[in-house]
Amino acid sequence: MSVAIEHHKNGKVKVKRWYASGKKWKEIWYDKGKKHREGEPAKIEYYEDGKTKCKETWYEHGQKHRANEPAVIWYNKKGFSSEVFVFLSIIIKYNNKKKLYLYFIIY
C-alpha cells in the first residue's frame, strides 16, 4: 500500500492511501495533529474499485462529531447507506497517559 502526505500552508495535512492495485483506499485530513475537516468528512474510505465510497466519518478536533447529522455513514457497493449519530463523546484520562473514549450513540 502506498501513502502520500500533503502539507498545506495553513498547517493542515491530507494523507492519501492506495490499495496494492494502485486504486484509492482512503483519504484523511488532519489539523494540528488531530483528524479534523470543516464541513466535509475528515476520513473517506473506498471499496477496492477506488471509486465507490464505503465509509465517511466526520471529526471535529480528533473526535467523531457532526452537528445535527450523522457522524458516520457506511455505504454498500450500490450506494445505499447506514448512518450513526454521535450525540455525546466523553474523554477520560488516566494518569495523563491513557485515554478512554466513551461514545453515546443511536442508530
Describe this structure in words.
The protein is mainly beta and 107 residues long. The protein has one domain (2-106). The chain contains no helices and 11 strands. The protein has strands spanning 2-7, 12-18, 24-31, 34-35, 43-46, 53-57, 59-60, 63-64, 72-75, 81-94, 98-106. It is flat, with a radius of gyration of 15 Å. The protein starts with a strand and ends with a strand.
Q: Please state the CA-atom Rg, rounded to the nearest Å.
A: 15 Å
Number of structural units classed as domains: 1
N-to-C series of helices and strands: EEEEEEEEEEE
Q: What form results from the Cα inertia axes? A: flat
Mean pLDDT: 82
> What helical percentage do the residues reach?
under 10%
Number of helices: 0
Low-confidence stretches: none
Span of the ends, CA to CA: 33 Å
Extended strand count: 11
Largest sheet: 9 strands, antiparallel
Which class do the helix and strand fractions yield?
mainly beta
Per DSSP, what share of the residues sits in E-state strands of 2 or more residues? over 45%
